[in-house]
Every structure is written in structure tokens, then in C-alpha cells.
Amino acid sequence: MLVGPRACGKTTTAVRHAATVLALDTEQGSGALRADPDVALRNRAEPVLIDEWQELPSVMGAAKRAVDSERRPGRFIITGSARSNTDQRLWPGTGRVVILAMYPLTVAEILRRPLDAFIDRVVAGETLHGDDTTPDLADYLGLALRGGFPEPALALGETGARLWLATYADQVALRDARAHGHMFDSAHLRRYLEAVAINSAGTPQHRTIYEAAGIDRRTAQAYEQLLSDLVVVDHLPAWSTNRLKRLSRAPKRYLIDSGLMAGILDLGLEDVLSDGALIGAMVDTFVVAQLRAEAPVARTRYRLSHLRDQNGRREVDVIVELPRRRLVGIEIKAAAGVGRSDARHLTWLRDSMGESFVAGVVFHTGRDTFELEDRIVATPISAIWATSDGPPPGT
To answer: Alpha-carbon distance 330 to 64, whole Å?
Structure first.
């Protein structure tokens, strides 16, 4: 099962691997399944793509029965633009379906680079370096504003991409909410989405967001759940450990794509460059989108969180949680020049965690990679998609 935001490329990808396609968002594709789903799934050329399963949730029961009667892997490919119901205790896919998250394209994919996940390279101890194109801040912001949704990233010009991304946000408020059974006020939902976007990569109190949208707490909770189910909004949970006390438990909210953030807020390059807070939020959202998208397919299993103590004195933008309680700390700086002071929280984390601390990375918008402290390096953001040079000598 591929689960991800609408229009991120799930169906395009899955069709390449399917012998039969059943599109449940069309009458032709769903008609037979509505009448008798068990019969409709029999005697089909396999793999069978069941596209947009959430349009007819009962199809999962038929898929379960089909798998139980003939247990061969790879019989069905299932796609969906919502991740609700997949975590319910009695969901029929448990033990039968492997769920793979799919996100908008990374820069590496847009450039058609081979898969070489950044965290894999960090854990392997490879020497990091920036991409040969040596982008500067304006270049990075240009990439962030375009985002990773295939249509605006690959097929549209600047004006068309900006319109596509703004329209995407409108469709979430007008169409997708109702398609998932919610009769929300579209204007209030759009304002809530704008409030989330302006606070992307931040840890504001939820009250700050819903008061900005002019709604109450209960309505905001429903909006938040919907946007999470639609994979429009994501959260980095707060990282915790017994070794450190008084850590904040508040998650960081993110728009799933920096281009979508720009579309919701109607931002162009000059708008972002004129606002230091927007620059930081846009770059942070962009970098986290790259790391999030690589996680499902990296050799190293990892998940992302963040660290912030309760008084806000110490903060690490991203904690990469590795197996065996190891971690990588990442700071994201929208600046070309960084120094040891920019790594002070990573230094504190390294000293606190000892051998569990694998590496620290300070991303910046300059050109060079250099060591800041033991196990802590500064490197360009473009190191995420730069071609690997392999491990250092002797490793």
C-alpha cells in the first residue's frame, strides 16, 4: 500500500508495476467492486492495482479474503490519499499489507540522481560535500518554492506552478474534506491551513493557530486530524530520553511540502527574501521534506523528531533516531557562514549522550564542508542530493 498526499505520484508509479488497474475514484473502476467486491477481484491479471482505496473502504475486506485464500505476496498494489483507518485495531490489512509512505519528489529525484540517502552516508562515515552546482540562498529558496509535487516541479513554469500549488490548497478545503465525509466550513478550513503554513517548522501552541483562524479548539482538532489524514500536515514528535530532563513535549508542525507552503501563503522569492522568519521556516520545511521522503527507502531505518527544552534555551532542529537508541542531530541554518556557536546545542547533545551520538550536521547555504567539533560537521544543504564519494580511507 502506497499512502501519501494527493498528486504526489502514487498512481503514476504504481501503474508501472500493475497488470490490472481498478480506479475506485471512477464509476467504471468502482462499479463491479461495489456490486460484489470478492467476485470483482477474482481472475484478474496480477498484480492488481486498487487505486484510491479510501473511496470504497469495503474493498479492503475483499482484499483480505483474497489474500487469506491464496497467500502469494505481491498480488495487490493499493494506493490511497488518506492514512486514516490504517491504524485501527481491527483494520483488515493488519498482517497482510505492507504500508509504504510516499511523499512529493526530492531534489535528487527531480535531478534523476540514483538513490543515495543522506542519512545512510552519514551513518557510514562518508565524507560529505555539496553539489557541484553550488547553489546559494536564492537558489535554495527557488527549489523550496517550487517544491516536490511532480506537476509543478517538472511540467509547469513559475507562474503555472504557483497557481497549481495555490489551487491544491483550495481543493483540500473545498473538495477533499467533503470527499472524506466532513462538511467543514471551507473558508475556516482554508484560514486554518494558512495559519499552519505560516507556522510551519515551528512549535507554537495549538491555541495560537486556531485563534488565528477564528475557530474554537474542538473544530481545530477536527481540522488537524483531517489535514494529517490527507498527508498535508505532518508532525515531528518531541524526542525524549532518560538522560535529559525538562524537555518539551510539543511537536513541530510542518506542511508536507515547502512549495505547498508557498502556494497557501501566495509567496514568491522576493516575498520570502524580505522576511527573515519566512526564510528560516521555508528552508527548514524544505530540508525536512527531503529527509522525510528518503526515510522509507533508506538502508538505515530512521525516524525524525526534534528536541527543545521547556524554557527554550536548547533546541536541535531535527533528531534522527536510529536503531539501538543511536542518533544524529541536525541543525538547519539559512546562512552561508556558520561557526562553532551554531553547533553549540549539538555539542551539548553529544556530550550528554556520549557514544549514542553518531554525528551532528549543521546545514548551511554556503559552499564548503568543514569540521566544527568532534563528530560535528558543517555542510551545504545540497549535500543531501550530492553524489556520494564513498567512505573515507580506512573505513
So the answer is: 41
pLDDT, average across residues 200-214: 91
CA 63 to chain CA centroid, nearest Å: 28
Q: Where do the H-state alpha helices sit in 43-136?
A: 59-69, 107-110, 118-123
Radius of gyration of the chain (CA): 22
Integer Cα distance of 212 and 201 in angstroms = 17
Show the CA angle centred on residue 70, arms to residues 68 and 71, nearest 5°. 75
Cell readout for 345 is 546545542
Q: Are 302 and 320 in contact (CB under 8 A)?
A: yes
Residue 339 has pLDDT above 50, yes or no: yes
CB 378 within 8 A of CB 369: yes
Instruction: State yes or no: pLDDT of 394 exceeds 60.
Output: no
Stated as kind and residue range, the H or E segment containing 165 is helix 158-171
Report d(CA 343, CA 333) in Å as an integer.
10
The arithmetic mean of pLDDT across residues 338-355, rounded, is 96
Give the dihedral of Cα atoms 365, 368, 372, 376; nearest 10 deg.
80
Closest CA to 180 of 215, 250, 227: 227
C-alpha cell at 393: 580511507
CA atoms of 16 and 4, how far apart (whole Å):
17
Question: pTM of the prediction?
Answer: 0.92
